[in-house]
Amino acid sequence: MDKVMRLASESGVVLFRKSSRCLCYTVKILFHDLGVTPTVHDIDQDPEYREIKKALMRLGCNTPVPMIFIGGKLLGSTNEVMSLHLSGGLIPLLRPYQALY
Fold it and tell me: Where is the protein situated, by its record's location annotation (predicted)?
């Protein structure tokens, strides 16, 4: 759990994912389209994969990936991100982390 929380707070937007999951890719592309480059942790490439997966599940996640943290706080998975985006709530959360064009 400590490793997950440390990694989640290392940058403004953090995405835990499995490199082979298409929903993980979709969330990453959405963030890029919104001007944000998330820090991505491919948990399936981490030697502590099982521990990270268990820690994400203990945080209350139904599925361990993709899991998104914004500002060090758990936002949720794909459903939460997409729902928040469709309701207009995602961009204000991302604004501090958007690249200036």
Answer: Cytoplasm
What are the structural domains, with CATH classification, of the chain?
3-95 (3.40.30.10)
Q: Is the pTM of this model over 0.70?
A: yes
Maximum Cα–Cα distance across the chain: 39
Return the SS3 of 60: coil
Task: Express each pLDDT in 87-96 by its tens digit.
Answer: 999 999 999 9
Strands 67-70 and 73-76: antiparallel
Please state, in angstroms and rounded to a whole number, the distance separating the CA atoms of residues 68 and 39. 10
Give the Cα separation of 62 and 11 in Å (integer). Answer: 24
Secondary structure of the chain: what % helix, strand, coil (to 5)?
50, 15, 35
Radius of gyration of the chain (CA): 13
